[in-house]
Design goal:
Length: 211
């Protein structure tokens, strides 16, 4: 049986993670977001700090010693060559494909739409939201964040995600042409957006792949 996959890209603070969780719960799909970091660490035998440092970032550095890993036994040359961004991306990509081969899944971020581009039963969605709603959401989540810093954090996080996605996929993050559906969660709310995406999933005929 070929499994059904829903991939969700999202603006920071748009509620994409919550929407993904609710869709997975409703459809009885497995749900993967940051869980992929632990799985990639376990599968590769590498510390999860490597994957956390590279998570949805186009570039980062391992050689400054800030991870506490540079010493006489591990050279900076080894770290740069063996633990490159591309290596970590490949490990995580292999994990995503393995999971998709085993079960119906909802993946949030991490270029899963591109990684699973050749899979037949895939729905790719991008979630946006109005700026005011996004700011409210992250301020509720991050109690120590000053209100005047919220917009800057939204901008920087989205820029980072866009750089990562564009770099690895050759497509444009958030552009309608890169997805089957782009939806603003502020219009219908979280639950209404979940209903809308699940309805599209059922009408797409992909549900036949679950039988």
């Amino acid at each position: 049986m070929e499994h059904c996959i829903i991939n969700i890209g999202r603006q920071y603070g748009s509620g994409g993670r919550q929407i993904g969780e609710k869709i997975a719960e409703r459809l009885h799909f497995a749900y993967y977001d940051k869980e992929l970091i632990n799985l990639a660490s376990k599968e590769s035998g590498l510390g999860k700090e490597f994957f956390e440092a590279a998570d949805e970032k186009k570039t980062y550095s391992l050689t400054g010693g800030w991870l506490g890993l540079r010493n006489n036994f591990i050279s900076s040359n080894f770290l740069e060559n063996y633990l490159s961004n591309e290596t970590l991306f490949k490990i995580q990509s292999d994990i995503i494909r393995e999971l998709a081969d085993k079960q119906h899944c909802v993946f949030v971020g991490r270029c899963a739409d591109y990684i699973l581009r050749n899979y037949p039963h895939v729905l790719n969605v991008f979630i946006t939201a109005d700026l005011a709603d996004r700011k409210t959401r992250i301020l509720e989540r991050m109690k120590d964040l000053a209100e005047d810093k919220a917009e800057d954090m939204l901008e920087k996080t989205d820029k980072r995600r866009a750089g990562y996605y564009n770099y690895y996929t050759g497509k444009t993050w958030g552009a309608a042409a890169s997805y089957h559906l782009c939806v603003n969660s502020s219009v219908l709310g979280i639950d209404g957006t979940v209903d809308y995406i699940c309805d599209l999933f059922e009408k797409s005929g992909m549900v036949e792949g679950m039988r």
